[in-house]
Amino acid sequence: VNTAVFVIPVVNLLRISFNEALPGGGIGPGPTLDNWFKLAEDSFTLEIVVRSVGMSLAVSLLTLICSYPIALYLHRAKGGWKTFLFVLVVMPLLTSAVVRTYGWIVMLADDGLINSVLLAFGMAKPVRLLFNLTGIMIGLTEILMPYMILSLLAGFGRLDPRCEEAALTLGAKPLQVFRRVILPLTAPGVALGCLLCFVLAISSFITPRILGGGRVFLLATEIYDQAIVTLNWPAAGTLSILVLVIFGAALVLYTRALRSLD
Hints:
Blueprint: H1 2-16, E1 19-22, E2 26-31, H2 34-41, H3 43-76, H4 79-90, H5 97-108, H6 113-120, H7 133-155, H8 161-169, H9 174-202, H10 206-212, H11 219-229, H12 233-261
Antiparallel strand pairs: 1-2
Helix pairs in contact: 1-12, 3-7, 3-9, 5-10, 7-9, 7-10, 8-9, 9-12, 11-12
């Protein structure tokens, strides 16, 4: 049943992507490849695809860099302190992404907290952090950090403190222990977290729409505009299938990464 609930809408989207778009939001009955040809030939759409994939990869990397030390510390924590930290990590998931995104507007505005601190330290003028790709990446990184931390913790089960102690005993420096012991053992969790964050970032709509101010065009926002604003459902269906293809490619890369790690 769960498979059917997922497959039937996807098949319907695929069917719509081969229909003709009629004026007023209508969908023509006859099959056509025009939507896919337009997708391949339109430089604006291709730019959106490249920007969306690049932004999602960058967000995944930033989220990993910010989350890895937290997850490692949480993994090594003991007793009630570990429970308290875990609650702090999960707590943002209990708050709506809309609320958290509007909170970032207050933080990233020209007269917001971040720019106020920078100006207090001698910055000549406010840094543009809102209604651009930078603001979107900052907001998505914070919003996706709990998912990355939980994924990393799931992969830290292979991390045995005795391996670290043995490496230190044999004369390895802390950086060498991290690079040659800790990182390889936690690599499956890293791969899982990056896959999850990439998928969530490239399909995110609320945060790019609000923090981008309608000035940054990504796949999710373009699908919304085609479906709701211009009422071009075949074009929206085509872009939606493209997003699913990107998901599939990311899953294939994740599977190959796991095999190479084994």
